[in-house]
Design a protein that fits this description.
Elements: H1 26-41, H2 55-64, E1 70-74, E2 79-82, E3 89-93, E4 96-104, E5 112-114, E6 120-123, E7 132-140, E8 146-155, E9 160-162, E10 164-167, E11 172-174, E12 180-184, H3 191-196, E13 198-203, E14 209-213, E15 217-221, E16 231-237, E17 242-244, E18 247-249, E19 252-259, E20 263-268, E21 273-278, E22 281-287, E23 300-303, E24 306-314, E25 325-334, E26 341-345, E27 362-365, H4 376-382, E28 389-393, H5 413-417
Parallel strand pairs: 2-8, 9-18, 11-19, 20-28, 26-27
Antiparallel strand pairs: 1-3, 3-6, 4-7, 5-6, 7-8, 10-12, 12-15, 13-16, 14-15, 16-19, 17-18, 20-21, 21-22, 23-28, 24-25, 25-26
Length: 418
């Protein structure tokens, strides 16, 4: 092989730093050029010629290592104003999903499930509104080679929202009859989605079911009264739930309450007595008066929902016109929304234990002002909890409606669940 001088330069023209010709350096230069030409030329073969040798073989090997699995994420990367339900979907083609991690900006994970065939992943619940999320998904093909995809998106900011007002309050100690009841500020037309966003946990564990009264009230209870000492925790994950078209929840809250001792008091309207039964033992029998003829007290199981040391009772508020207006009724506890109370009565004379003389309430002997803590009304007031049950029987009236107060216990369990 002959080696040509570098273009535009003769061998004799190469000089050292002293400006003289450097004949001793010439053989080294020629050798270096020769090696360079030999290594770059590869024996005269073009590395891109595709002859199946050298670089072409390496390229094919690299392609064979790439996974055939294809991961797709909806919504697209960078999407904004994404719907909180139904929009997030992860899928794999020519492979199976092995990992899907969805997190909000705070690092909280979104639970979800990979289908049995590994083709899809779906979230277990709705997403929160006005929230940024990241998605990382991994799939493997038949050869076990992995493919991954990442995406970011932000959910919509609702123009219209709803909230729920609930009872009992967080941290409460309640009686065994207390349901968890929530009333919504807007009528709900997607009840299944809203109910799914409310989780009830109990210690000890017991089945708890929800029942809708109309489209704005949802109550939860077990089949029978709570067991004394039960701890109940309610997770309200309503943020982002579309309760009705274009109207989204905006609450995320955890509420806990504890069930106290078991107390169920039984009023017999014919005998004019009430037995206070605590932990299945009769604690006290109290003379009472119930609704007079034409004003009979409801039968059925009624839950104490409010305790008032003193209150005003006006017949006009419950449809009885001006028949009564008592401004200082002592030791009053509400049993129904329609105005049934069990309360102290200082004007009943000898009615207690003898005859029914009220306008539908259950009356216990008391003194005006409620100052005497030894009266039956004061004793019962002091020994009762919100959520205790008062059962009325043998009255000449119908059973109270389950939605009149927190009185769902009057509905059979199968109907409640349906």
């Amino acid at each position: 092989m002959s080696v040509r001088p570098i273009s535009g330069t003769s061998a004799a023209g190469i000089r050292g730093r002293n400006g003289r010709g450097t004949r001793r350096g010439l053989p080294a230069l020629v050798l270096g050029v020769l090696l360079a030409v030999t290594s770059c030329g590869g024996g005269g073969t073009d590395p891109g010629s595709g002859d199946g040798k050298g670089g072409g073989k390496d390229s094919t090997a690299a392609q064979s290592k790439q996974s055939e699995a294809v991961v797709t994420i909806a919504p697209s990367n960078g999407a904004k104003a994404v719907d909180t339900s139904g929009a997030l979907k992860v899928a794999a083609a020519k492979g199976r999903l092995t990992e899907v991690v969805v997190k909000d900006a705070g690092g909280a994970k979104v639970d979800g499930t990979i289908s049995g065939d590994g083709a899809t992943w779906t979230p277990s619940a709705h997403l929160a509104a006005a929230t940024a999320y990241t998605v990382h998904a991994v799939a493997k093909d038949a050869e076990g080679r992995t493919a991954a995809e990442d995406s970011r998106f932000t959910t919509l900011t609702p123009k219209n929202t709803f909230t729920g007002t609930f009872t009992p309050e967080d941290g409460s100690k309640v009686g065994v009859g207390m349901p968890f009841s929530i009333r919504f500020s807007r009528g709900i037309t997607h009840p299944d989605d809203v109910e799914k966003a409310i989780r009830i946990r109990t210690e000890p564990a017991v089945e708890v079911e929800g029942h809708w009264f109309g489209n704005d009230r949802l109550d939860f209870r077990p089949e029978k009264y709570w067991q004394a000492g039960t701890k109940v925790t309610v997770d309200l994950a309503l943020d982002g739930v579309e309760g009705r078209e274009g109207v989204y929840g905006k609450q995320t809250k955890t509420v806990s309450f504890t069930v106290g001792r078991k107390q169920v008091s039984v009023v017999d309207a014919k005998k004019h007595t009430m037995q206070v039964v605590r932990d299945d033992k009769v604690l006290k029998t109290i003379p009472v008066t119930t609704g007079a003829p034409g004003y009979e007290t409801w039968n059925g199981q009624m839950v104490i929902t409010e305790k008032l040391a003193v209150t005003r009772m006006n017949g006009e508020t419950v449809g009885y016109g001006g028949e009564y207006d008592i401004k200082d009724v002592p030791h009053a506890m509400r049993l129904s929304t329609s105005g049934t109370f069990i309360h102290g009565n200082y004007w009943g004379g000898d009615a207690f234990g003898n005859r029914n003389a009220s306008h539908g309430c259950v009356g216990l002997r008391d003194v005006q002002g409620g100052w005497d803590g030894k009266t039956p009304a004061a004793w019962f007031f002091d020994n009762s909890l919100i959520g205790d049950v008062v059962v009325v029987k043998h009255s000449n009236d119908e059973t109270i409606a389950p939605d009149n107060g927190l009185n769902g216990w009057n509905m059979p369990w199968e109907q409640w669940k349906a």
